[in-house]
Amino acid sequence: MPIGRRSRGEASVNAATARATVSSVARKSAPLVASKALSVGLLGIAAILAARGLGPADRGILALYVAIGTWLPLFGTLGVGTVAQIRLVATPDETTRALTLGEFTGAVSVLVIVQCLACPLAAWMLLPLVHVHPSPVGLLILAFLAAGRLGSTLLMQGQLAYGLAVQDAVVTTAGSALLVAAIAALFITGSHNPVDYLGAMSVSVIAQMCICYVALSRARQGAAPHPSLVSFLELVRKGYPAMAISLGQSVTFSGDQFIVGLYLNASAVGVYSVAEGGAELLRVVPFAVGQVIFYRVATGSLTREASRMVRRVTISLYVVIGSVAALLARPLFSVVFGKAFVPGVTPFLILVLAELGISLFFLSTSDSLPRGGLVRSSIICTAGMLATLVLDFLLIPSFGIIGAAWASVAGYWGMGLAAVMATHQTSGAPTTK
Predict the structure, then answer these.
(1) Over its length of 433 residues, how does the chain's per-residue pLDDT go in tens digits?
(2) Any residues with CB less than 8 A from the CB of 380 and at least 6 apart, and which?
(3) Residue 20 CB: number of other CB atoms within 10 A?
(4) Residue 360: inside a domain
(5) Is residue 165 part of a domain?
(6) Would you say residue 18 lies in a domain?
(7) How far apart are CA 420 and CA 364, in angstroms?
(8) pTM of the prediction?
(9) HEC per residue, the chain
């Protein structure tokens, strides 16, 4: 009898501890979620202005440029960001030396330079396949877009590795505000050139990268880039499994737009990109909470039970937000984007369901990666990428952009459910390996 009482008492204490930890995570996530929500609002305004200023066809051309400037930088991180997030704060052991902030920013500098060269070359080779012929000016601007996006992504990962949620919030909001200002200027002046809008995006991400570096250097000493070949090779060697995650995410999230362009036309890409972009805005809360989970698990301050509770609450919140967005979708598309984009309503509704699956993936991998789940997550991403691409090629020719949306549902939910199962198979303690 005393044993039973003690067990029930211990369970009660554990539950209370988990609830306290969830409250702490919620407080830590609050500035990040608020900034992401504000950023989402600003990005929504930018998307509306771009859609109205360009129309479906030119919006599709811009989307194809941006797709390359997005997925190639994700792959171009070479897994450095994922590993560095763990290594910057984890306690080194006999097999893993400490990673300094200067070595990290030095690696970022090298990757940014490589991206400046790789992205225009990729665009020059790939865009003609989807009936877009890039100009030299467009390729030059795309180089800056890719470099800025990669640099800001990695530096923001460095901020979050140190738990600098407030600084990350400021950087995110500042970048979005600059983007809105630049696109609003183009809209007011009556520009209908997608390359002009691409330039506005490039200016905003380059500025965001610079702001992020300044914020990081003020918060932590030793941020000046100090390239180290040994450190860089070590990061790449330990991070190469994460390349599969980056490649899987980038191709899965942007590959369907290329396949739509391959089989259909730029107008279809424009309509689908608006629907897909609108649905992606809904992942703001899961993504922000996942970043806090990653940091707390990596530093050993979040138990499995508390992490599970945080993830359940976050998914419940997404369901509420997604339901509201689905109810308002049809009138909003017509009023906000214009009648030319109304065919995007059905794909948007389908993609809201898909985003629930990818939210499960984000939240689960945020818990499993610091616990040694890198290889499993890489396998899941690779499988999800291949499944989504195969379904895209099968469904888009017959069902158009609706087929692309259903392919995303299958791929995202497969990744999400697999990640949830993998979370239960990882070890309990965080690891630097």
Answers:
(1) 454 554 555 545 455 555 555 566 556 666 666 777 787 788 888 988 999 999 999 999 999 998 888 766 666 566 666 677 666 765 555 455 567 888 888 888 888 888 888 889 989 998 998 888 999 999 999 999 989 988 888 888 788 777 777 777 788 888 889 999 999 999 999 999 999 999 999 999 999 999 989 988 888 888 888 887 877 777 777 766 666 666 666 666 677 888 999 899 999 999 998 999 888 888 888 887 887 787 777 777 777 888 888 888 889 999 999 999 999 998 888 888 888 899 999 999 999 999 999 999 989 888 887 777 677 877 888 888 888 889 999 999 999 999 999 999 999 999 999 988 888 766 555 554 4
(2) 248, 361, 365, 415, 418, 419, 422
(3) 11
(4) yes
(5) yes
(6) no
(7) 6
(8) 0.77
(9) CHHHHHHHHHHHHHHHHHHHHHHHHHHHHHHHHHHHHHHHHHHHHHHHHHHHHHHHHHHHHHHHHHHHHHHHHHHHCCCHHHHHHHHCCCCCCCCCCCCCHHHHHHHHHHHHHHHHHHHHHHHHHHHHHHCCCCCHHHHHHHHHHHHHHHHHHHHHHHHHHCCCHHHHHHHHHHHHHHHHHHHHHHHHHCCCCHHHHHHHHHHHHHHHHHHHHHHHHHHCCCCCCCCCHHHHHHHHHHHHHHHHHHHHHHHHHHHHHHHHHHHCCHHHHHHHHHHHHHHHHHHHHHHHHHHHHHHHHHCCCCCHHHHHHHHHHHHHHHHHHHHHHHHHHHHHHHHHHCHHHHHHHHHHHHHHHHHHHHHHHHHHHHHHHHHCCHHHHHHHHHHHHHHHHHHHHHHHHHHHHHHHHHHHHHHHHHHHHHHHHHHCCCCCCCCCC
As a whole number of angstroms, the distance between CA 49 and CA 39 comes to: 15
Question: Closest by alpha carbon to 71, among 388, 349, 410?
Answer: 388
Number of domains in the chain: 1
Which residue's entry shows tokens 């259909």?
264
Range of 234's domain? 25-423
Measured CA to CA, the distance from residue 130 to residue 267 in angstroms comes to: 12
Could you tell me if residue 7 is inside a domain? no
CA pair distance 147, 168, nearest whole angstrom: 19
